[in-house]
Amino acid sequence: MPAFSEKERKFLLEFARKTITTRKIAIPDNTPARLKEKGACFVSLHEQNGDLRGCIGNLESHEPLIRNVARNAINAAFNDPRFPSVEPGEIKNLRIEISVLTKPEQLRYSDANDLLKKIKAPIDGIILAKGERSATFLPVVWEHFARHNGYDKEGFLSELAMKAGLGPDDWKEGCKVETYHAILVEEK
Fold first, then answer.
1. Per the count of CB atoms within 10 A, which of 41, 122, 136, 155 is most buried?
2. Residue 91 to residue 174: CA distance in whole angstroms
3. CB-CB contact of 23 with 17 (8 Å)
4. What is the spatial distance between Cα 101 and Cα 182, in angstroms, rounded to a whole number?
5. β-pairing verdict for 125-130 and 176-180
6. Domain of 72?
7. Mean pLDDT score across all residues of the chain
8. Alpha carbons 9 and 103: distance in angstroms, whole number
9. CA geometry: angle at 143 spanning 125 and 179, to 5°?
């Protein structure tokens, strides 16, 4: 997936902020053509100190990227069950981060050691599924994780397994693993 132009990046970020502010999905007529193509994304909101304030997205594209950004921006701000809704006075202080995803692909591996060898930190976003439980970590999560643990793939997979409601070692056997990449569009 090629990177976005500076114009496209600026458009996405301004559009996401306006959508959060108005709580309305209004696709502008001047939307760049590439942003009208199908695309999947996650929108993350961060406080000024870097703490996560909301993050919602989807892994597969079912609609134009611009509409997906709008829907996920509103949901990250007002419907992330981990956080209270963003208050109007907070919006100006939030930093917006949009991860535009490639299509997930199943990772074939023979055992836990083979899985660890095949995962590419910090490039791969990972979907871990076992039975009815699943969870994902975006590629950008590697950077947050690495601040405290380095690029510890075992620790990363253990955290992901626990996010899915599994035991910390459940990733070692019987899991379906998919990987994807992301283009990060973020406010500085």
1. 41
2. 42
3. no
4. 4
5. antiparallel
6. 6-101
7. 96
8. 20
9. 10
- 1 pLDDT above the threshold of 80: no
Structure tokens, 170:
């459940």
Same domain, 166 and 84: no
Q: Per the domain annotation, does 1 fall within a domain?
A: no
Which residues 6+ apart lie within 8 Å of 58 measured at CB? 40, 41, 42, 68, 72
Helix (H) or strand (E) holding 168: none
Domain count, the chain: 2
What six digits make up the tokens of 15?
């559009």
Look-up of token digits 């902020």: 17
- Give, for 23, the enclosing helix (H) or strand (E): none
The DSSP symbol for 84 reads P
Residue 28 one-letter amino acid: P
- Which residue bears the tokens 């458009």? 11
Neighbouring C-beta atoms of residue 170, cutoff 10 Å: 20
| pLDDT tens for each residue of 113-131 | 999 999 999 999 999 999 9
The single residue listed with the structure tokens 């502008």 is: 28
